[in-house]
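User: Structure with 2-acetamido-2-deoxy-beta-D-glucopyranose, tokens only please.
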Amino acid sequence: MCSRNIKISVVLFLVLIPIFAALPHNHNLSKRSNFFDLECKGIFNKTMFFRLDRICEDCYQLFRETSIHRLCKANCFVHETFGDCLKVLLIDDEEISQLQHYLKVINGSPYPFHKPIYH
Ligand SMILES: *[C@@H]1O[C@H](CO)[C@@H](O)[C@H](O)[C@H]1NC(C)=O
Ligand SMILES: *[C@@H]1O[C@H](CO)[C@@H](O)[C@H](O)[C@H]1NC(C)=O
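Assistant:
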């Protein structure tokens, strides 16, 4: 009786190992920011999302400052740091208008950043 139970345990053990091994591991997929992590409430459009994300990545590359990286993407890119990044990256007016449209789609609300004023 007792040894039978052991046999059953051994069989279960041997069956379960491959099942656990086959389970997806907790791969670290969060290398890039993700739509849901940023709490974006609009519509996910990959092209638009990655363009916005790219602004923050480029900005980060320039300063190597993790707070910039974080703040740029804060509140789904609706943070003044994003606007600052557009300025330092010398994004032109035409592209800014396009990015404002992207933000409206991705974020779900119009973006309040101000266009840089050139005197
Ligand atoms: C994934 O990687 C990022 C950055 O390398 C790290 O901050 C995060 O904690 C990692 N997440 C998990 C679940 O390991
Ligand atoms: C995503 O946005 C791009 C750029 O505006 C557009 O060309 C494309 O059709 C959109 N894709 C979807 C699935 O809406």
